[in-house]
Amino acid sequence: MKKLLFFLFTLITLNVCAQEVVIGKKHQIESKVLNENREYWVSLPSSYRKNGYKKYPVLYFTDANLNSFFHAFSGIAKQMSSDASPQIPEMIVVGIVSQNRVRDSAPTRSLIQWGGTATKALETTGGADNFLKFLQTELVPHIEQNYHTADYRILAGYSFTGLTVIHSLYQTPEFFNAYMAIDPSLWWDNQIMLKRFREFSKKELSKRQLFVSTSERVPSLYPKENYVIEFIQKIEASPVKGLNVHSEIFGTDQNHHTMQIMSFYLGLKNIFSGYMIDDAIRFRPATELKAHFENISDRLGVKLKPREGLVNFFGYNRLYDNQFPTNSAAAIDFFKLNTEYYPESYNAWDSLGEAYWHEKEYKLALDAYKKSTQLNPGNSNAKEKIKEIEEHFN
After folding, report:
1. Dihedral pair phi/psi, residue 376, rounded to 5°
2. pLDDT of 18
3. CB-count exposure of residue 49 (10 Å: 0-12, 13-18, 19+)
4. Domain extents for the chain?
5. Residue 283 CB neighbours (<10 A)
6. Which region is the signal sequence (predicted)?
7. pTM of the entire structure?
């Protein structure tokens, strides 16, 4: 019997330990525009809950199935938005699986491949307009219908799919808020996108962001010129109104095949420049935190706010943490700010009630706990506190 019990316990332990770490989920959408089913992968933020009160920016990128990009990019986005000094907001990451890469990425039809020779393999090129139509009329509306999305979209692409990013910027610049082109193939079709820049430069945009990266290439390879650097020079010489441009030119220690991870990180860091908060802000008034996010929201043209859990951490840190002098009034201000940011969060109201309880502000604590139970009737902690406070008054 003991051996049997030990065996069963071992099986249970192994089963618990064998749980998978889930990065994201695979989905399909039927595209009438492309006349095919398209696969896309979704990675959700750690705080994502299906309760409707939190909204997240969405990052769309191509080549989800290439070189573990989905694993790397979703991981970077999660790490950069975590801890006490997040550099970017939490976001939903949507990776689009490439099926006919040359067809979907090329804005024009050309048979000239990398290397300068013609090939019939490129006969399907020129479908970038259709691919953008698929994104704008099918995939993006589908994502926004099924997930809690904020009104902020980013489009990212690498190499040949970087052409898609530049083409989208040229054609419908207001559809996405930010664009990340990682070493885009601007050599394509006799540098057609460079030639189209002059017309694009006349546009007037509103609070749009562009990040573009490349590296210094070995000049003996085709093409001998780095057309991405030429693009950067053009856009710096003729700035587009309303377009904030960030660029990175890596040295010879990086090349076309090694720069993707660093580019993705720097792209997000630059697009959300100014988002990162100082860890010491928890020792200053909550109004400074609020002003910080008001400023970055105004610059980017979308309402951004800190994570609910982060503001809660600041509140509890000021209330209880004995490593530093506590400040109950400051803690209450952080908790109140959190209920302003997330008025539908029962936990935010519960924490505010706890802070008032700690300060013997029983009437205010009672109001906060009652609000928490209205939002979540199953909050047993708040119910117990309400009972204690009402007994105290009686």
Report:
1. -145, 90
2. 63
3. exposed
4. 21-271, 279-393
5. 15
6. 1-18
7. 0.91
